[in-house]
Amino acid sequence: MALVSMGPMLKRARAQGYGIAAYNMIDYNSARAVVEGAQALDAPVIVQVSVKTVKHWGYTPIAHWVRDLAATVDVPVALHLDHCTDLDVLRRCIDAGWTSVMFDGSSLPFEENLDKSLKAYAMTEQAGVGLEAEIGAIGGVEDDKHVNEDEARLANFDECVRFVRDMPNLAVFAPAIGTAHGMYKGEAKIAYDLLERITASISIPIALHGGTGLTEEQFHRCIAGGCAKVNISTMHKMLYINSFVKLKEQKPNLEEPLTFIAAQNEAMKEDVKSVIKIFGSAGKAADARSVLTQRH
Ligand SMILES: [Zn+2]
């Protein structure tokens, strides 16, 4: 299939009560593991890319890799830009073929975040791609941005309502609800009451950031509470490195790089499949496809 915009399928996922996995790719092999894992379970999926990764490989190669991978499968695949603070980078991704982008103005004062998010919204509306926008401050490390425990703050409910008011077509909304990027030290403290309050007044699908390390029960509760896009990044990165290192430790004389790449692909793909099962999106490709003619 051609790459799809994530908005309609996330709306559908929220209405049907399942979550769509959004995996951060590192390179072609990891993107392939995500797409193949989704295809194996007949699930819609989002391949997302950090700004750092975009800058490492370049806009066009990434867009081509993911577009070509999506063309080999019949499950819906969206190509999404994760946590971008720069409207120029957003524009370049849209021009290169991304089907959705995230503008992250969460480190800005509310009014400034709103102002810039509205600019991003206008840009994505015009281009026909989906937008994700964030408020509050999600803890942990994402790209080179560190938000320590003291700085992490939950989204303010009234600000959430105001924030989305002029963005009716927002593909997905990311209020900080207590999850964090990276690995959790203890169990994540999720503000379910805030999530419930937000989803009772806002019909836009919610994005759950900081998925690595959450328990199955936490995933289920968040997804049931309106989180239709569930981000996984840290686990994918760990498997990317560990699968390589483990094989070399087990077989020190192995010198064929393709054998390592295949092992890496297999480890990441298995993780993608187990996550998709937890999120309830296995077998939902047709369900997600059924709404693709709708607007982003
Ligand atoms: Zn995030």
Alpha carbon gyration radius? 18 Å
**CATH architecture assignment name:** Alpha-Beta Barrel
Approximate helicity band: 40-55%
Approximate strand percentage: 15-25%
How would you portray this structure in words?
The protein has 296 residues and is of the alpha/beta class. It has a single domain, classed as Alpha-Beta Barrel (TIM Barrel). The chain is built from 12 helices and 10 strands. It has an 8-stranded parallel beta sheet with strand order 8-5-4-3-2-1-10-9. The protein has a two-stranded antiparallel ribbon with strand order 6-7. Strand 9, helix 9 and strand 10 form a beta-alpha-beta unit. Helix 2 runs parallel beside helix 4, helix 5 runs parallel beside helix 6 and helix 10 packs antiparallel against helix 11. The chain is globular. The relative contact order is 0.19. Zinc ion binds next to loops.
Features:
single chain, 296 residues, alpha/beta, TIM Barrel, 8-stranded parallel sheet, globular, binds zinc ion
Write the layout of secondary structure elements.
Blueprint: H1 6-16, E1 20-24, H2 28-40, E2 45-49, H3 51-57, H4 59-71, E3 77-84, H5 87-96, E4 100-103, H6 110-127, E5 130-135, E6 140-142, E7 145-147, H7 157-165, E8 172-175, H8 192-201, E9 206-208, H9 216-224, E10 227-232, H10 234-250, H11 257-279, H12 285-289
Parallel strand pairs: 1-2, 1-10, 2-3, 3-4, 4-5, 5-8, 9-10
Antiparallel strand pairs: 6-7
Helix pairs in contact: 2-4, 2-11, 5-6, 10-11
